[in-house]
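Pasting as-is:
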Amino acid sequence: MRDVKIALLDADVNFKVVKQFINTVSEKALGNEIMQSLSPGQQIIKIVNDELINILGTTPARLTFSSSSLTTYMLVGLQGAGKTTAAGKLALMLKKQGKKVLLIAADTYRPAAIKQLQVFGEKNSVDVFALEDKNSPVKIAADGISYALTNNFNVAIIDTAGRLNFDEQLMNELLEMKKAARPQEILLVLDSMIGQEAVNIAQSFNDQIGIDGIIMTKLDSDTRGGAMLSVRAVTQKPIKFIGVGEKPEDLEQFYPDRIASRILGMGDILSVIEKAQASFDDDMEDVQKKFLTNEFDLQDFYKQLKNVKKLGPAKNLLKMIPGLSNLNLDNLEPDEKIYARIESIILSMTPQERKNPQIINGSRKKRIANGSGRTINDVNVLLKRFSDTKKMIKMLTSNKKSLFNFFK
């Protein structure tokens, strides 16, 4: 239990929550019949993991929708938590689910907050309602809701202003917006990197305004997510989404069992698999056919490289794999350098060279190296690795049944 306590404190779980958790687990562990398939140590870990999931919520918490024509969500939180970014990501997620979404830019305090939302909307084809920042946030919210109703939107998401600290003006303003907009849910956006302070923030917002759910941001950082356990235990409010990156698509449903493993430093392999499926599923069948016919070329390789980039930084992926989460990965060469080197070399080749790398002789290598700003050795290394990959594919395709089973 001492090791569990240290693991939880290292993950930034609130001390009071840790103390209560240890007492609960100890009571359950004492006298608990040991399963024949588990050692006593493994049994303790099972009880700890089950209790973590019990606190975080046994099932994923979903957004609720209004029975009326328009569902409104209001995002609140302190400045710097990532409300504007979270609002945009949530809008894009709901748009992909077939909803007609309107973003309402009601943060008139932070410079360029409205512009940030408008730029996001333009890039991702999401409608944004905004007025001049001389208007009050309450008026913007009310007018935005009216606009959404008039133009048959299904969902309205209000981005509110934050402060560096709590103040009476902020809370009063949010209460007025709540009355004006009548949101289906108020979602608190919390930065997962603030650690134990998250409890005080969540408690204050819940006590003064009332929240229905939580979005935890910046889970792509080194944090293990202990703040989520603290906030959930203290407020009893469900965590609905987690932000796992800077891209518009980097907002994910919160799964208690996966975060429980992450808090204990046991990784999150299911999330890695889901990321891979989302990136590769669309064109995997075409790649399989090229493998079987030994037609996989450098153009296909480049396409798969771009899919790999969608998975995010390798360091973050490695930390989600059981057994690797505690390793020091700071000395890994940045992904950007590796990708940039490979991309520049492939893009400096002609279409014919990408399709038939075997025609690349000495003079072609020199031209490719000069065109990509790399060395001839860099070109040789890439061609050698690609040649080795082709040989491996050829060995696999000698037994097509085995290859099909491999992909399945």
